[in-house]
Amino acid sequence: MEFRHLGRSGLVISEISYGNWLTHGSQVEEETATSCVRAALDAGITTFDTADVYAGTRAEEVLGRALKGERREDLEIFTKVFWPAQPSPGRNNRGLSRKHIMESIDGSLRRLGTDYVDLYQAHRFDHSTPLEETMSAFADLVHAGKAHYIGVSEWTADQIRRGWALARELNVPLVSSQPQYSALWRVIEAEVVPTCEELGIGQIVWSPIAQGVLTGKYLPGQEAPAGSRATDDKGGAGMVSRWLRDDVLTRVQQLRPLAEEAGLTMAQLAVAWVLQNPNVSSAIIGASRPEQVAENVAAAGVRLEAELMARIDEILDPVVERDPSHTGKQAPPANWRVAS
């Protein structure tokens, strides 16, 4: 494993982090989830990302139990707040109001079995709450020792800039952005990345293998493999469906000889590709089996030659999404996973 600073902060994290968005508490049994976390630890991963909304709080609970007994100071544990973590008739159970943030952090800490999180992230931008209120609440959590740093997820460049300015006034470190990013989904490159480079904010990117499409397991003109994310009726299928077009799948298959030339699997090539961006501090991987962790972690420290990067661009260019206006628009809906 190799490590990088999170933006220009002093926090050092593993350049591959482990996330449990679609797996813990839902797709896999807890014994398997724990085995995946153990595999991540054995591979040198120290950074773990989750959210209260994942599997209706169960993902945080499973991760907390899986990490129990580990030396807390040796880990970086990240979680998020925005959506209702569980079904509720309450009108204040979502968003980034002071009330919701203060109540959500206590629930997350209890489920994770820790006194603090290293990074607390705004899971989306809240258009219905004054940004000053949101940032003030986050600042109070940092000053109270419940979070060491704060971050955002799927915010636009303008939203990031406004949040960073307020955080600076409040003397708290807004250090990260967590967007979707892969060789197929590059909407952050035009605006978010340059803004974050200027402000000293690092990217913690999710879905670097495009929900599994960049592994090459989905073939043009064929049914999705049984047991794959495309057949998961609990949420996975909805996210991956936009890539299951023959034009996309055909071009992804053309990456296979490039991966072989580089001595990498398709998944490793995809993870290594996002890590070539110097503004990326870490790439989040997930797993439903421990062996998937071992495969993806092998992308750590891989440096792709400029010629190979150019060939990847040439192959994928016609099917790549680059429009910065799509930032946050391909995210899960507001009730994501709550009912699972």
UniProtKB/TrEMBL annotation:
Residue numbers spanned by region Disordered: 320-340
Keyword flag Membrane: no
CDD domains the UniProt entry points to: Aldo_ket_red_shaker-like (cd19074)
Oxidoreductase in keyword set: yes
GO annotation (BP), single: methylglyoxal catabolic process
SUPFAM superfamilies: NAD(P)-linked oxidoreductase
Protein name, as recorded: Aryl-alcohol dehydrogenase-like predicted oxidoreductase
Species of origin: Allostreptomyces psammosilenae
